[in-house]
Amino acid sequence: MNTLDTSDRFTLIRHGDADGWIEAVAAEMAAELNRDIAEFGRARMLLSGGTTPAPIYQALAELDVQWDRVEVSLVDERWLSPQDRDSNAWLVRESFLNRADGAHFDPLVRVGKPLPECVYSANLQAQHSQRPCLSVLGMGNDGHTASLFPGSKDLTRALESTLPYAALDATGCPGANQWPLRITLTPHGLKQSRQRLLLLRGKQKLEVLKHALESNNPQLYPILNAIDLDGAKLRVHWCD
């Protein structure tokens, strides 16, 4: 494993293989959780969906953490029931919560409530909860992170929001696939996390990150909104 400090913007950690990548990220996450548990008695983290982090969540659940002292919520969510197999809540439950006995989960979508009310509840929960010790992010080939999609009509509003979460309509954005309506963490919400991890697989993702940095355009490449934040530098864990 080779650690390279890429100027003052983020730290890139290159892993030689997928197993090492999984083991190292899971260990780092466990260390962050245990640090907050030791200091505050509890810890809170925000997770992303997708197939990329799923094996890391599985490995994390096997590590030595007092899971009954851990609160979990999401970086973003599709406008789907938490019981829907295409929801981020379902992936986090299947890959992590069902193994991390005792961990408490706060979904972003509340069944039977309209989208604005779910966003209101998510913001209320975030504002009255312990500060997250970490947020786990991914990045699409279009440069989006969380549900901050380039070209979305709601992107500017979400980026400028002073609340942790926002609703976003990504209609017409290819990266949103068939789920345009979203709840997403905003940059304001993201900077509340003491540590931010970006998990990437494959050379194409490094190319997207390179293009984002060269463009220096956070509207075109919303991933930049996760890089240029106050606090600890973003830690990017990559393997081929």
Structure write-up:
α1 packs across α2 and α2 packs parallel to α3. The protein has 8 helices and 11 strands. The protein has an 8-stranded mixed sheet, sandwiched between helices. It has a 3-stranded antiparallel sheet with strand order 5-9-8. The protein is of the alpha/beta class. Helices cover 34% and strands 22% of the residues. β1 and β2 form a beta hairpin. The model has no long low-confidence stretch (mean pLDDT 95).
Quick recap:
By secondary structure, this protein is an alpha/beta fold. It contains eight helices and eleven strands.
Largest sheet: 8 strands, mixed
How would you spell out the order of helices and strands? EEHEHEEHEHEHEEHEHHE
State the separation between the terminal residues, measured CA to CA.
12 Å
| Mean pLDDT level | 95
Give the helix tally: 8
Indicate the structural class: alpha/beta
The total of beta strands comes to: 11
Regions with little confidence, pLDDT below 50 for 5+ residues: none
Strand order of the largest sheet: 1-2-11-10-7-3-4-6
Residues in β-strands, percent: 15-25%
In helices, the fraction of residues equals 25-40%
Approximate shape: globular
Gyration radius, rounded: 17 Å
